[in-house]
Amino acid sequence: MTIKKIRIDTIANVKKFCSIVIGCEYDVDIVSGRYAIDAKSIMGIFSLDLSQDLELRIHSDNCGEFLDNIKEFIIE
Question: What would the pLDDT profile of 17-73 be if each residue is shown by its tens digit?
Fold first, then answer.
């Protein structure tokens, strides 16, 4: 599993992020506080507090290409 901190703070960014994640062949979850949602669910993402940093849990250790695709959302 790979874990990264991300920020998705606008409607346009949520749409862009979701369109990238939908193409993933492995499970990806977003954790915010005590809530964990499927990152492929645009409605799930909108149910979170997007003003806060989110934790992205990628259920794969071989996800370099995916991380490159979402690098604009990753907080270093």
Answer: 999 999 889 999 999 989 999 999 999 999 999 999 999 999 988 888 999 999 999
Q: Which two tokens stand for residue 64?
A: 């370099």
The set of residues, in sequence order, having a beta carbon less than 8 Å from that of 53 and lying 6+ positions away, is 5, 6, 7, 75
Q: Which domain holds residue 24?
A: 2-69
CATH number of the domain where residue 47 is located: 3.30.1340.10
Q: Are 73 and 6 in contact (CB under 8 A)?
A: yes
Domain count, the chain: 1
pTM value? 0.87
Calculate the CA 20 to chain-centre distance: 9
